[in-house]
Amino acid sequence: MKNLSRQKGFSLIELILALIIVSIIAGFAIISVASARKYVADTQAFEIVDILDQARQSALNQRRTFRVEINKTKNQITLINEDKFDDVSDDKIVKSLPLRNNVVINQVPGNITEAPTASSSIPVLNYAASSYPLSKNEEKITLRFARNGRVLDTGTDHVGTGSTVRGATIYVYTNKEKTNTPEIIRAVTVTHTSGNTSILKCSFDTTGKCGNWVR
Known about the structure:
Blueprint: H1 2-8, H2 12-38, H3 40-62, E1 66-71, E2 76-81, E3 92-98, E4 104-105, E5 128-129, E6 139-145, E7 151-152, E8 168-175, E9 182-190, E10 197-204, E11 210-214
Antiparallel strand pairs: 1-2, 1-6, 2-3, 4-8, 5-6, 6-7, 8-9, 9-10, 10-11
């Protein structure tokens, strides 16, 4: 009977070892989730660049204007074929992706001391109410890629009247958990003359300020 009882139960050492193993596994899971949340800004930046690059290449290949909208209202980024330049009724959505959770897009981080630099002007774009039928009155950032590769703004109306060549900086970052302090900052830059894109990474100094940008 004593042997049978010993086989059916667990010793104190076995229970302690089991608890230690469960604790270790839980610790790794917490670290994994925290790391994924922290670096989601990188994933978001790459997804934005992929759509911007597709817009540029499509514009050059098809000799048409393609538009990229980062839509704050719908929390998505959309690639649109404008087809005929002066007619918005034939605009077609080519691709649309949801924006990542816990990522801030294009609000200038408060701990930046130096803006990213490029070979041409790269202003920070602001969200503005859309005049396009596909996104009427929704808050969005818009970049239009012309058939010659240049990047245009929206102009003064929904068909792009008076549009000018303009580059862009799009900040993408995550904040430290339960704070408004950025911990991972990326800058997507688009040059106005060619539409070329880059992702710049911000390096923090010992005080937590960002003033050094690297590719």
